[in-house]
Design goal:
Radius of gyration of chain A: 28 Å
CATH topology of chain A: Alkaline Phosphatase, subunit A
Oligomer: heterodimer
Structural class of chain B: alpha/beta
CATH class of chain A: Alpha Beta
Number of strands of chain B: 28
Radius of gyration of chain B: 49 Å
Number of strands of chain A: 17
CATH superfamily of chain A: Alkaline Phosphatase, subunit A
Largest sheet of chain A: 9 strands, mixed
Shape of chain B: elongated
Helix content of chain B: 25-40%
Distance between the termini of chain A: 90 Å
CATH architecture of the largest domain in chain B: Up-down Bundle
Structural class of chain A: alpha/beta
Number of domains of chain A: 1
Shape of chain A: globular
CATH architecture of chain A: 3-Layer(aba) Sandwich
Number of helices of chain A: 14
Number of helices of chain B: 16
CATH topology of the largest domain in chain B: Four Helix Bundle (Hemerythrin (Met), subunit A)
Number of domains of chain B: 5
């Protein structure tokens, strides 16, 4: 027999239920006052990266990377090895070469005659940095630069080595350094692309550059490098077409954005949003670029600084000047490539020519940043993808020689942006073949550059295909010795 | 029930008397190890009287809810437990205090308030059953007990956690950043040692809590805030410090003790080096030079202290921060952990001075402003002083002059000022030099002359002046060549030749006769050139103070008339067919590095022979026939051996109009790469033409392919007026 009274007691009315529930909900709500992010999804490391703020106070805010494509010889530029001149024509001792693999271009050689620099070296600056005579202007800024003589890489051919330098992996498909920075630090000036690429070509034996070097990889496509044109107009098709004024353009973009937005709501493809952002940036670039290109506030002698070629679009000098303007306007990463540094033969002539192309303008860039009070926040990097052998490739003659690829050691220099100025870092053996002190791997180089920009290379990550990727992959350590 | 009450009564009498006795003779009390060990349970036990006493008050307030006599029973039991736990807590506390170096005043407060509380709870229990008179005031009495308990508890908390533990956070003074004010006269101790002591030692070795009798505190004898130890002998103390730091972490004597934050290896080194160097607390940074034992440490510390500036101002809310940003104004935190902000302005066109005003919402936080190229005038500079913490200000290429500079006076934290590209003159220099905090000033491209630079650098050494590049008369540079604006060397009807000079002030001179242009007599290019016939120009650029450019030659062709029909008599080699025979008359030239592209026809085994027929009405117009060819000697592509032009009024009836034999290859031209043309004149109206271009039969001996046939590459044959 059921007990009606007892049953009634058990019966919970809706009013009852809601009444009780409101108390519970109320206190839960009270709780949320203290735990703000309880119901918003947990902020991942990636999301906090998206805020675009450095992890710690940075030294450098921007980078200008003067990439010397094709790999300039360290032995004719910054790594002075008089022993090679003394031992010209003698065989490279097997103990020095060790197990170093060779490229297909020299692996067939039965002799490896050592060859010294045809160019004289001198010491410059307060710390007596050794610099070759083909870089007289870089020699003048010896006190501002930090020469790293002990870079080393794993790749021995151009494409993998370049790709390794750019993306921290030899195989490609990873984001390039500039894309990582754009991702990690955002754009300083949203009216210009955060990652800009400028190409030039010397007369020396060239190696190609290709857009995979400035790829965004798996990152959002807004981080991709934007290649500038070699013509008078660095950015093509920026002008409104005839008959379209700014108002019409604005209206068109607004309508387009509405359409795109509908599309986005339907498909949710983030690329649609990127595209809308790119349109907006292009619109703002219509004012930003002409202003950036305006030279009227600069003295005529800016040409004397960078050299006459700086007025010819598409030259290295012009690109240096443009790089300075871009960087000054807040472009996070400006990458130049100067092609023609692959001296397998005819090294003497070609390298003089290549050096002539870059010497004055590279030095001018550093000096120009400095006189505007911007060098301390701009990191300038000059260097190629690997070094060159201390022995001669092909037919050896006193006047002319060539050098093959050498990954074990090579020299680059950096200036500004928190790098210790006026020093040489690391030492190679007297044959200029192996590192004897303070090696700097490409991963270490990346870690250090990120560090200078206020980023912890172990925390700048992006999750893709179920794995978190970094520019430095799973390696790399910051080199304190080159940080001011 | 009565049984437990008498027990409790007895315990309370005994324990409270013991407590009172020990409390008054605490100084002379000697504790057996066991008892001093039990003292460690004081922090555990003390929660019982707090809980039970509080509960008894709640019970009292709800007494109306109980029926019958059950309330009295429960209430009495609660009061008794409250009294018992109180007295034992107090006893254990007394044991604990022995042998520790607490601040005497604070200890006394805690001890006697604890004793009082114990007696009070005892009294409460007794009074509830035995003293009817107090019943009307019972509630007040209970709240008095609560107040007493709070006081005792607070005193105890302060003793354990420090006097300011229970202060409201706002009241905690944010310590001024010691590192921010480091100068040469700062004591090394302040820079290096004090921060470590403060962080790792002082929490236990301070005035209120002098563990082991060590107090690291302000020295009362000096007015300056120097930290020293109150120790019988300062050096002895330091020696002991080194000794204890060096002990293994498991050792009892090791400092900081296990469980506290240990010293970092670097901190250890700094402390030890300082002590080994004599432990001087007053030695200033300026006196620590190259050979000083602490020099390396000092350098390292100065470096890291400049690396991380700490700011005491609060973070700006992210909402506010976002509101300051737009597409042309970027205000960002300098780093994730730092409240400091930097502000950049872009696009002069969209700049208004009110934007600067808007940033005053973040006036404390902004430490860097970049106003490069913005239309900032002297009167706007006073707004900059809105930002008292500004450290770096960039005003490059703004419209400011000497007049505006004095309004920067209030910026007393400014370290870097960049005024490059402005109208500043030397008048501003003494003022800038008087700004105490200023370290670097950039004055490139201002009204300051080279001679004045030298003076300034010599006179005002407290600031690093940067004057940057100025052109020197000894640094003579080569000019580069002219830039041809025409997209093609083929000139259509009415096309003119246009050159551009890359450098302002340079002069372009040219000649038509193939001679080298000179800087005096050769014609100056001033406007687009128009020629009626094919022309080869030699062009050179001159500018005083520069090395003139190399000579550049450009061969221009008048666009040819289109033949009615064109026919190969000999066809090119199969891999170099170009875009067929039409490519000879499409008015488009090939590129020298693209011989495989559509413009070029390549011949090797046979000479080129091509027939051209024109409409009758065009026959009279044809005055010149130009054969354009490519050269790349290393690739076996040479100038032709000869070119023959035949003409007539029908295909069958043609006569040789002209044969031009070209010079044979010389060794000097072994690396030649380029294009050239043979131009032949036609004197009378002709409708049919045959062009024969003969390739070189045998390459000379100095060529790598000696004896082989040379190639000839033709991209165009022009028939022009």
């Amino acid at each position: 027999m059921s007990n009606p009274f007892f049953e009634n007691q058990q019966h919970v009315t809706r009013r009852h239920f809601l009444g009780k529930l409101s108390v519970g909900l109320g206190s839960a709500a009270l709780g949320t006052l203290l735990t703000k992010d309880l119901f918003s999804p947990k902020k991942s490391l990636e999301e906090s990266i998206m805020a675009g703020i450095p992890h710690f106070a940075p030294k450098a805010k921007r980078v200008i990377y003067l990439f010397q494509n094709g790999a300039p010889s360290q032995l004719e530029s910054f790594d002075y090895k008089p022993l090679l001149n003394k031992m010209v024509g003698q065989e490279l001792p097997a103990s020095i070469r060790g197990a170093q693999r060779l490229t297909g271009m020299t692996s067939g050689q039965d002799k490896f005659p050592l060859v010294g620099s045809k160019f004289a070296f001198n010491q410059y600056g307060q710390n007596g940095t050794w610099i070759s005579e083909i870089f007289p202007n870089i020699a003048k800024i010896a006190d501002d630069i930090c020469v790293v003589k002990t870079l080393h890489t794993e790749a021995i051919n151009h494409d993998p080595a370049l790709t390794f330098f750019q993306s921290g992996a030899q195989q490609g498909n990873r984001p390039s350094m500039g894309a990582w920075l754009s991702y990690g630090l955002g754009s300083e000036n949203s009216n210009l692309p955060a990652y800009s690429v400028l190409l030039s070509r010397g007369k020396g034996n060239g190696q190609g550059v290709y857009s995979k070097l400035w790829t965004n990889g798996f990152l959002d496509s807004v981080h991709q490098g934007v290649q500038f044109s070699n013509s008078d107009e660095p950015i093509l098709y920026l002008e409104n077409p005839d008959g379209v004024d700014a108002v019409t353009r604005r209206k068109m973009l607004d309508k387009l954005a509405m359409l795109n937005d509908e599309n986005y709501k339907e498909f949710g493809d983030p690329e649609i949003q990127s595209r809308v952002q790119q349109y907006e940036m292009a619109y703002r670039m219509q004012t930003a670029v002409p202003e950036m290109m305006d030279l009227s506030k600069e003295p005529d002698y800016i040409v004397n600084m960078y050299g006459a070629e700086s007025m010819v679009p598409g030259t290295y000098a012009a690109n240096c000047l443009l790089a300075r303007r871009l960087s000054e306007s807040g472009v996070r990463f400006v990458q130049l490539y100067h092609q023609g540094w692959d001296q397998h033969g005819n090294l003497y002539n070609e390298m003089s020519g290549q050096a002539m192309d870059v010497d004055r303008a590279s030095a001018a860039l550093v000096q120009d940043l400095k006189q505007r009070g911007l060098l301390d926040e701009t990191l300038v990097i000059w260097g190629g993808e690997f070094g060159r052998t201390n022995f001669c490739q092909g037919n050896f003659s006193e006047d002319n020689y060539g050098r093959d690829h050498h990954p074990r050691c090579f020299s680059i220099w950096m200036a500004g942006g928190g790098v210790k100025p006026g020093i040489s870092y690391g030492e190679t053996d007297e044959f200029g073949y192996n590192i004897v002190k303070d090696p700097v791997h490409v991963h270490d180089f990346h870690a250090t550059v990120l560090h200078l920009l206020g980023l912890d290379h172990e925390k700048l990550i992006y999750k893709h295909l179920g794995r978190r990727f970094r520019l430095t992959d799973v390696a790399g350590k910051v080199i304190p010795g080159i940080i001011a | 029930m009565q049984g437990y009450k008498s027990w409790i009564s007895n315990i309370l009498i005994g324990a409270n008397f013991l407590l009172f006795f020990l409390a008054i003779s605490a100084n002379k009390m000697v504790l057996p190890t066991f008892l001093s060990w039990t003292g460690h349970f004081h922090p555990l036990l003390l929660h019982l009287p707090i809980g039970i006493a509080s509960f008894s008050i709640i019970l009292w307030l709800f007494k109306g809810k109980f029926s019958g006599s059950s309330f009295n029973e429960i209430y009495e039991l609660t009061l008794s437990l409250s009294a018992v736990s109180s007295v034992f807590t107090a006893l254990l506390g007394l044991f604990l205090s022995k042998g520790q170096d607490y601040d005497a005043v604070m200890l006394r407060n805690h001890l006697w308030s604890g004793v009082a509380l114990s007696f009070f709870t005892w009294f409460s229990w007794w009074a509830f059953t035995n003293l009817e008179k107090v019943k009307p005031y019972w509630t007040y009495l209970q709240f008095f007990g609560l107040a007493l308990m709070s006081f005792a508890g607070h005193a105890g908390g302060s003793l354990t956690h420090g006097a300011d533990y229970l202060n409201f956070p706002d009241k905690i003074k944010i310590e001024e950043d010691v590192q921010a004010v480091i100068t040469d006269s700062t004591a090394y101790f302040q820079l290096a040692v004090r921060p470590i002591l403060e962080k790792k030692c002082v929490s236990c070795h301070k005035k209120d809590k002098a563990k082991g009798g060590l107090i690291l505190a302000s020295n009362p004898n000096t007015t300056s805030d120097v930290w020293v130890a109150k120790h019988t002998n300062f050096n002895e103390m330091l020696a002991e410090m080194v000794q204890r730091i060096d002990l293994p972490i498991t050792d009892k004597e090791h400092m900081p003790p296990r469980g506290k934050e240990p010293l970092e290896p670097q901190e250890m080194v700094i402390l030890k080096n300082w002590i080994n160097a004599g432990g001087n607390t007053n030695e200033i940074l300026a006196s620590i030079q190259q050979n000083h034992a602490l020099f390396a440490d000092k350098e390292l510390l100065l470096q890291s202290s400049s690396k991380e500036r700490k700011y005491s101002f609060p973070f700006l809310s992210s909402k506010k921060l976002a509101s300051l940003n737009d597409a042309f104004t970027v205000v960002r935190q300098i780093a994730n952990e730092s409240p400091a902000l930097k502000a950049d302005f872009f696009i002069a066109k969209s700049f208004e001075i009110s934007k600067l005003d808007k940033l005053s919402a973040a006036k404390e936080q902004i430490i860097q402003i970049n106003l490069s190229k913005m239309p900032i005038r002297d009167e706007d500079l006073s707004m900059i002083t809105l930002f008292p913490n500004l450290e770096k200000l960039i005003l490059n290429q703004t419209d400011i002059t000497d007049k505006g500079i004095p309004s920067l006076k209030k910026l007393n934290k400014i370290r870097v000022l960049s005024l490059s590209g402005t109208d500043i003159s030397k008048k501003s220099v003494p003022f800038l030099a008087s700004m105490k905090s200023l370290e670097e000033v950039y004055l490139w491209h201002t009204n300051i002359t080279e001679a004045e630079y030298q003076d300034i650098v010599k006179k005002y050494k407290n600031i690093k002046w940067y004057f940057g590049f100025s052109p020197s008369s000894t640094d003579i540079l080569p000019l580069n060549g002219p830039i041809l604006e025409n997209k093609s060397l083929v000139l259509m009807e009415n096309d003119s030749i246009r050159f551009k000079k890359s450098i302002p002030g340079a002069i372009i001179r040219y000649t038509e006769d193939g001679s080298e242009p000179d800087s005096l007599s050769s014609p100056i290019y001033s406007h687009p050139l128009v020629f009626s016939k094919p022309v080869t120009l030699s062009v050179k650029i001159f500018k005083p103070g520069w090395i003139s450019s190399p000579t550049y030659t450009f061969s221009f062709f008048k666009a040819g008339l289109k033949p009615d029909s064109t026919r190969w008599l000999t066809s090119p080699e199969p891999e170099y067919l170009g875009a067929g025979v039409q490519s000879l008359t499409d008015n488009s030239l090939g590129k020298i590095d693209q011989f495989r592209a559509g413009n070029w026809l390549g011949y090797k085994n046979k000479p080129m022979e091509t027939l051209f027929r024109f409409k009758p009405e065009d026959a009279a117009d044809i005055r010149f026939v130009s054969v354009h060819y490519g050269i790349n000697v290393q690739s076996y592509i040479l100038a032709p051996q000869y070119v023959e032009l035949w003409g007539g009024d029908s295909e069958r009836n043609m006569k040789l109009i002209k044969k031009e034999v070209l010079p044979i290859l010389v060794k000097e031209k072994l690396n030649e790469v380029g294009t050239s043309a043979v131009i032949l004149e036609v004197k009378k109206p002709t409708r049919y033409f045959k062009v024969i271009v003969k390739n070189v039969d045998k390459l000379p001996v100095f060529h790598p392919g000696k004896g082989d046939k040379g190639w000839v590459f033709i991209d165009e044959v022009f028939f022009s007026k």
